[in-house]
Design a protein that fits this description.
Largest sheet: 3 strands, antiparallel
Oligomer: single chain
Number of strands: 3
Length: 146
């Protein structure tokens, strides 16, 4: 009789364990499928942002414009030629803004939130140290939203 009650307890514990394991497996599968779907768009946007930043970094005109700035430069006051290049390389389905900051500055969005809207914002940055004439390390950060 004592053995009979003991088995029922272990069976209930095993059933509970497998039920929790089943629920955890379903949750993991659902979460991994969600992240796989969003990763494709995110990687495309980040690849496009990296291309724009490399274009600015490798072109001496844009590089000089960035290096010659002082302080934090918001999108409204962005250097004209560099801003035009960013706008020309940005696909129609994205809205992008950029910011130039010093190394010690916190380079985050401020008043551009109204421009980008309420969607997901993807950001990437590049560090530019100097031109042949001037050493003035700057961070160029680009923010894009669908």
């Amino acid at each position: 009789m004592l053995m009979e009650k003991n088995r029922k307890g272990w069976i209930k514990i095993a059933e509970s364990f497998f039920a929790i394991l089943l629920v955890a497996a379903v949750v993991i599968i659902v979460v991994s499928n969600i992240s796989v779907r969003t990763t494709g768009a995110a990687s495309k946007i980040l690849y496009m942002e990296r291309g724009i930043l490399k274009e600015i970094e490798l072109n001496s005109t844009f590089r000089n414009e960035v290096i010659n700035t002082e302080g934090t430069v918001e999108w409204v006051d962005f250097p004209t030629q560099t801003k035009g290049k960013i706008q020309s390389l940005t696909p129609d389905y994205l809205t992008c803004v950029a910011k130039i900051c010093g190394l010690s500055d916190v380079c985050v969005l401020t008043d551009e939130e109204s421009i980008l809207g309420d969607g997901d914002v993807y950001a990437d940055s590049i560090l530019m140290y100097s031109t042949l004439e001037e050493y003035n390390p700057r961070i160029v950060k680009i923010f894009c939203s669908i």
